Amino acid sequence: MTTARFFTTGSRIDAVEVTGHAGYAEEGEDIVCAAVSANLDLTSCLLADVLGLDIKTEVDDEQARIRIELPKKLDEADEMQAQNALDALMLYFVNLKARYQDFIEVMEV
Questions:
Q1: How far apart are CA 7 and CA 78, in angstroms?
Q2: Is 88 exposed, middle or buried (0-12, 13-18, 19+ CB in 10 A)?
Q3: What is the CATH number of domain 2-108?
Q4: Would you list the DSSP string of the chain?
Q5: What is the pLDDT of residue 5?
Q6: What's the CA angle centered on 93, arms 88 and 95, to 5 degrees?
């Protein structure tokens, strides 16, 4: 099972960490893993390349773990855009869980 954890301080999402393999299908055929990976990549590109934020990204292929962390302090406009991006990612994962509940878990911690 894939677990997506959104780390929050108050209403701010500080980071997202995704661990594990969905197990929906064989490697290379798993649409749940593909959906999760593609949306994490898109969010990372949006935050780093489009918005120009100095995010911290950690990838551990051996442990099947990806973490994206926002800087502690952002100006108001960047903060709003970053939160919109992470809110959209969380909503996407929640919707994915509704369709594939045995393969993905979403938590706010």
A1: 18
A2: middle
A3: 3.30.70.1490
A4: -EEEEEEEETTEEEEEEEES---SSSTTT-HHHHHHHHHHHHHHHIIIIIS----EEEEETTTTEEEEE--S---HHHHHHHHHHHHHHHHHHHHHHHHSTTTEEEEE-
A5: 98
A6: 95
* pTM assigned to the model: 0.95
pLDDT category of residue 4 using cuts at 50, 70 and 90: very high
Q: Where are the domains of the chain?
A: 2-108
| pLDDT value at residue 82 | 98
Q: Checking phi first, is residue 98 left (phi over 0); if not, alpha (psi -120 to 50) or beta?
A: alpha
Q: What is the C-alpha separation between 83 and 67, in angstroms, rounded?
A: 16
- Angle made by CA atoms 90, 9, 67, in degrees to the nearest 5: 50
